[in-house]
Amino acid sequence: MPTAVVDASVAVIWAVPDEKSELADAIFEQYSLGQLSFAAPTLWPYEIANALSRAVARGRITTDEGEGGLGMLLRLEVEWTGFEELVTRAWELALARGLTVYDASYIALAEARECDLYTCDARLAQAAGDLVPVHLLGGD
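Structure (tokenized):
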């Protein structure tokens, strides 16, 4: 089964009711049907929780919606890769490409797994474009 690195910006689409992306929905459907697995660095849940808590604080979603979305995402089966496995390459990429080490960790993981990277972050997609197959998702 193919694996995809899905960054937190994509996962948040699945958790926030007013976010829409046909490609994000298609990726989630492939996962649900057992046709695709997800991989992410272990910082992923923290980034998701942060994005959802900010959405609650801004009044974009309710606390119940945020907690429900977080719970749903935390129940996903994800192949986790820890800091120690990615930090050296993420550090190199961050310095070379002007990224945070957090964002660079997604590229490092996609390189290590030799798989596609999915993101809603145009800057990350551009930085990764010559290194791994990258798919930039936008709201539809």
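Helices lie at 8-15, 22-32, 44-57, 63-74, 83-97, 101-113, 122-128. Strands lie at 3-6, 37-41, 78-81, 116-119, 134-136.
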